Amino acid sequence: MQVKIHPSWQTILESEFTKPYFEQLILFVKNEYNRHTCYPKGSQIFAAFDHCPFENVKVVIIGQDPYHGPNQANGLCFSVNDGIPFPPSLQNIFKEIESDLKIPYPKSGNLERWADQGVLLLNATLTVRHSEAGSHQNKGWEIFTDAVIQAISNRKENVIFLLWGGFAKKKGAKIDRKKHIVLETGHPSPLSANRGLWFGNQHFSKTNQQLKDLGKKEISW
């Protein structure tokens, strides 16, 4: 089956695309997109990979599933299209960046600028039905994104994984922590952040310090 994904990932993930679960998943997704309004738009389902080729991956942030409101999701976790109001989790991410790095609150919620610098913004589930959070969970996407994380863990070294909240921590269980750097904190959602589990984590300055120590270019958050 031909999947439109960046050539560097095509090579890495080729074996997944021919597995029965993936073929069933693609049939499910096509059917959903034909019958319902789903997000992100079809051309952006693999946007996280298109903006961040395998060889460029320096940082991985793991999200759960895409935003399910009109024009929000663009294929990158926590990111929204330009001109769209920032959802609460993204607001809290930006507040932490502002206090951690002492830089102005970003004007755009479109995180393509991070992905283009080597941040893989990976949702566990890559599609969702309009207004139905989690509607495409347990259909096969999680198996696929586990394989992505496993491939990064196996084939690369010194990647910085940012695991925010219980879901991301479970998703990151397969990461080889002898080869990679893992930073964990609470989820940026208001529920978690208001309980003191998000603010003050300094993941953005810590990530840049690690990149600097590794002789890699820091991320312009």
UniProtKB/TrEMBL annotation:
Its main location: cytoplasm. Keywords: Cytoplasm, DNA damage, DNA repair, Glycosidase, Hydrolase. Gene3D superfamilies: Uracil-DNA glycosylase-like domain. One of its GO terms (molecular function) is uracil DNA N-glycosylase activity. It is an enzyme of class 3 (hydrolase). Belongs to the uracil-DNA glycosylase (UDG) superfamily. UNG family. This is Uracil-DNA glycosylase.
